[in-house]
Amino acid sequence: MQFNDSFDEDDSCELVAIGLGLKEYRCGWASNGSPCDAPVLGQDFPTHLKTVHRANDAPRLECLWGGCGEALNKECLVRHVQEKHLEYRWPCPKCGAIFTRRGVMDTHRVACTA
């Protein structure tokens, strides 16, 4: 059996991204007081929030996920849901430190000496 010896840090990060995108989550956005509860793949959440819950119709909105209530700019909604409610996590492939945003992990990774 042969293995790919060129698997590197970038490949590790992409593998995490693929896993988060293909994981099935339950939508906790409340409509009429009840959670949606639809099964949605991580990669499909932006479209689900926009089309099913019309969550991008106003420049500012309230997060209706499980009673969260946080006031957000519409461009921050998807990131907020991924970080706070879907609990997306990005491990540094060098040291294992955990980050809620890939961009922050990427910045850390450049300077990481582990």
Plain-language structure description:
The protein has 114 residues and is of the alpha+beta class. It has helices spanning 9-22, 45-51, 77-85, 102-111; strands spanning 24-26, 30-31, 34-35, 39-41, 60-62, 71-73, 90-91, 98-99. The chain is elongated, with a radius of gyration of 17 Å. The mean pLDDT is 89.
Q: Can you describe this structure in just a few lines?
A:
The model has no long low-confidence stretch (mean pLDDT 89).
Summarize the SSE layout with pairings:
Layout: H1 9-22, E1 24-26, E2 30-31, E3 34-35, E4 39-41, H2 45-51, E5 60-62, E6 71-73, H3 77-85, E7 90-91, E8 98-99, H4 102-111
Antiparallel strand pairs: 1-4, 2-3, 5-6, 7-8
Spatial shape? elongated
Give the H and E element order.
Answer: HEEEEHEEHEEH
Number of helical elements: 4
Strand portion, in percent?
A: 15-25%
Please supply descriptive tags for the structure shown above:
two-stranded antiparallel ribbon, 114 residues, 4 helices, alpha+beta, elongated
